[in-house]
Every structure is written in structure tokens, then in C-alpha cells.
Design a protein that fits this description.
Blueprint lengths: L3 E5 L4 H12 L3 E6 L12 E4 L4 H10 L4 E5 L14 H16 L1 H14 L3 E2 L2 H4 L8 E3 L6 H19 L5 E5 L2 E5 L5 H9 L15 E4 L13 E2 L1 H9 L4 E5 L4 E2 L2 H11 L2 E5 L5
Parallel strand pairs: 1-2, 1-4, 2-3, 4-5, 9-11, 10-12, 11-13
Antiparallel strand pairs: 6-13, 7-8, 7-9
């Protein structure tokens, strides 16, 4: 197995990947991004690197003998004026600022390109862990009713449409009405907004109506930033009075899978994987 350089932001995904590598015996080196990577990653061999210290990051990966890299975890869009770049980062900064003006996906593609130029194979989290992505069909015991399936189809269409504009990856639809779309606030904050809407527009905890859909942007570099759900997503969906979650099979990451299934069953939330468009 190629030694993996895990470039780790926040959240549970980098931790799951690190634990998977440990269990499977895959050699691992963790680049902990300052201000983002969690404390759980501290015991792993690695280095702490600032967001604009591109040269330091690449040198550390090469010294460690990494052949592949995986970018995983939550990294908020930075205030570029506050970054402290090294020489390599300074050279890259104008391109990064220009790419960021085009959208998050353009910025991620630029970063992926920099690692590929240095000879690293860039692997998606779902490639490192082949059981991380949502399968086709239902996870857990809960299934969608006919009205839920209609909402799911519309919610996925809306999520794909906002993704086409590089706005976000998620949307909520209930009774055929678009209740929310995701932008920079993220899924949890979007669901909190939905929870504050009148119950006649959706449902209520224990009697949910409406669906959260998450889909990758059509233009997206799928090796980084695939949409993700976890325990907080299931809790947010239930709290918002929604019936379930839908995503594209193989293109939605599920963190803490067994715990997510158990919680969804407990709260009466269905999780459905459908075939991606064109597949």
C-alpha cells in the first residue's frame, strides 16, 4: 500500500480515515492544518502546518515518504489577507485568490493540481475507505413514503442546480416546496433555519415531512469535498421535522455509519441512496 499523507481539517472524517489506516496497516503521515485539525489526530506521526505553508507541507510529505495524499475535513474559507504564507505559498497565493473568486471548486482543483505536480497521487476519502460512501437503497429500517419520494426527487434536483452554480451541496424540500438551500453556512445551520419554519410547511419531530438532499456539484473534483452526513445531520433532520435524507449512491460520505443507522432508526429518519444522474 502506498504511504498516505492525510491533509487533515476539522470534523470526524480525518479521524475515521486515520483510524482506518491504523486498522488496515496502511502507513500514514498526518498533516494537521493549524486551527482546523482536531486533537484526536495528535498521536499520529505527522506535522502541523499553516494553511498557506504549501512548501512546508510538501517537504514534510516527501520526507515522510508519502506517495499519495488525501485532503479531508472541514476547512473554512480563509481571510486571504490574514494568511502567513511560506515562499511556495506566496507564489501560489495570487492564483488561489483568483480561483476563490470563481468558487470553492476552482480553489480545490488548484490545490489538487499542486500536489499532482509534485508527483503525489490524490485519493478521495471514499477511495481510501471503500465502505465510507452511501450504498444504493436504504440504510436502516426506515423507508420513505410516496410523498417523501416525490420530495426527495425534487430536493436532489434543487441540490444539483445550486451545485451547478457552485453555491452549495444541499437543499430541503417538503410538500414540493423548496424550504432551504445550502450556501456558505453549511448543512447544520441550514437545518437549524428549517427547524424555525412553521410546522405546516414541513412536519414536526416524530411526524416528519420533507427531505434533505445532498449531492456533489456537477463540476466538482470528487476526490475532495464530497458531501457528508453524520450524527449531527440526522439529529438536525429530526429536529427540523423532516422525514429523511437522500443522496447519490457512492457520492455521499457517511461518518460513524453504524451509529448513524442506529440514531436514524431511533428518531424515525430514513436514509436513501439513489443512482447518480447518468449512471
Amino acid at each position: 500500500m502506498k504511504k498516505l499523507g492525510l491533509i487533515a481539517g476539522g470534523g470526524g472524517l480525518p479521524v475515521e480515515i486515520a483510524e482506518h489506516c491504523e486498522r488496515s496497516g496502511r502507513p500514514l503521515f498526518v498533516i494537521r492544518l493549524k486551527g482546523f485539525a482536531g486533537a484526536q489526530l495528535a498521536p499520529y506521526a505527522g506535522a502541523e502546518v499553516g494553511l498557506a505553508e504549501v512548501g512546508k507541507c510538501i517537504k514534510a510529505l516527501k520526507r515522510a515518504g508519502c506517495e499519495a495524499v488525501c485532503l479531508a475535513g472541514i476547512v473554512a474559507r480563509p481571510d486571504f489577507t490574514s494568511l502567513v504564507p511560506d515562499l511556495r505559498g506566496l507564489k501560489l497565493l495570487p492564483k488561489a485568490i483568483a480561483a476563490a473568486r470563481q468558487g470553492d471548486d476552482a480553489l480545490l482543483r488548484l490545490l489538487v493540481g499542486e500536489f499532482e505536480k509534485e508527483g503525489f497521487e490524490v485519493q478521495g476519502a471514499h477511495e481510501v475507505m471503500d465502505d465510507l460512501s452511501l450504498p444504493a437503497g436504504y440504510l436502516g429500517r426506515r423507508a420513505a413514503g410516496d410523498a417523501d419520494l416525490q420530495d426527495a426527487r425534487r430536493a436532489l434536483a434543487v441540490a444539483r442546480a445550486v451545485g451547478q452554480l457552485d453555491v452549495g451541496q444541499a437543499a430541503v424540500v417538503a410538500h414540493g416546496l423548496v424550504l432551504a438551500v445550502e450556501a456558505q453556512e453549511g448543512t447544520d445551520a441550514m437545518l437549524a433555519r428549517v427547524a424555525d419554519l412553521p410546522t405546516h410547511l414541513k412536519g414536526m419531530p416524530g411526524a416528519g415531512r420533507g427531505v434533505l438532499a445532498k449531492a456533489p456539484k456537477p463540476i466538482q473534483e470528487t476526490r475532495v469535498d464530497l458531501p457528508t452526513i453524520g450524527l449531527a445531520t440526522v439529529q438536525g433532520v429530526a429536529r427540523a421535522g423532516l422525514a429523511g435524507i437522500v443522496g447519490e449512491a457512492g457520492r455521499l460520505l457517511v461518518l460513524d455509519r453504524e451509529a448513524v443507522i442506529a440514531l436514524a432508526d431511533e428518531l424515525g429518519v430514513f436514509i436513501l441512496g439513489v443512482e447518480a444522474e447518468g449512471q
